[in-house]
Amino acid sequence: MIAERILIVAQKEFTDHLTSRKFLVILALLLMLALLGMHQGIGQYNRDLESYNQQLQAAGDAAGPAGTMPERPSILFIFWQLESSLMVFGGVLAIATGADLVSKEKESRSLKTLLARPVYRDEIINGKALGGMAALGVALAVAFTLTFAVLLVFSIVPTAAEVVAVLIFGLASFLFLLAFFALALALSVVVKESGHAVVYGLALFFAFGYLLQMFGMILAGVAAGDIPQRPEMPNGDDEAVWKAYEKESGQYIEEMEVYRSKQQFVTDTVYLFSPMMAYNTVASTIAYPSDLPPEDAASRIWQNFAALLVFPSVFFAVAYTRFMRMDLR
């Protein structure tokens, strides 16, 4: 395997993607939805900022007791609006990019001709994967650059911490696109026709995103068991009865915490198998960092990052192995 030949194949695939009408149409839809989400996010950010300034003015711009100062709104909420557009149209763009990388070559019978040249199978599949990844990276860079440009037009300047958080969000977005690109690439190798590869890819896209989410909720309810019953509030002034009620209420609260923790554990475990849910968890944790302690938020982010890394790795391995053993007769 020679890196120069891999880069030649990657360059060809990269150029083909960026000049493809299908790729450009889906990218245009993605950018339009991103701008719409940006508009809504900026409007909400400005309203939150105005409310924050009013609260500061009411407090006399002086810090009061701990916990009384309002929290300044973050631009990360604006980027969270971008997540919904990337989750749908980004996933579709990734599937469209990878679904015909190999299957179109098989349909046109050009794969035999390509392999007749001084290039090996591993160089072809690696070059095709690299070219598709580069095209998706450019699409994502365009979306994020446009987002930053709109923010600057509205005189919204992110802090250093927010820039770091956005970069982490961008990496998670790329891994999300990579997950479904790898899935589509594997289907392109396994399935004979590119049209079938697209259909199967879209079906799995919705299965991993929505059916798996429903399955996780149902499985969590079954695993957690029956929901604890709240004790009934007694009537009258009998002190012994009220003490028994307080004891039962304390037990109820503890049982509910155990019940919810069981549910959360099951859903979190199931959602690790869904790139959509893993991506959504990373995005929501970044957008609302104050909802969790810093150490819990970091653990949650990196756990789902690991899930986003495993998913494309598995399907890239499937695509590579299947392509290397493919019968081209």
Write the SSE topology.
Layout lengths: L2 H16 L2 H38 L17 H23 L4 H5 L2 H6 L5 H33 L6 H31 L3 H31 L14 H33 L3 H13 L6 H31 L5
Helix pairs in contact: 1-6, 2-3, 2-6, 3-6, 3-7, 3-8, 3-10, 6-7, 6-11, 7-8, 7-10, 7-11, 8-9, 10-11
Number of strand elements: 0
Percent range for helical residues?
A: over 70%
* General form: globular
Q: What's the gyration radius in Å?
A: 25 Å
Instruction: Give the strand content.
Output: under 5%
| Alpha plus pi helix count | 11
Mean pLDDT: 82
State the secondary-structure class.
mainly alpha
The main β sheet shows up as: none
Uncertain segments are none
- Tell me the distance between the termini: 23 Å
In total, how many domains does the architecture comprise?
Answer: 1
> What order do the SSEs take from the amino end to the carboxyl end, as H and E?
HHHHHHHHHHH
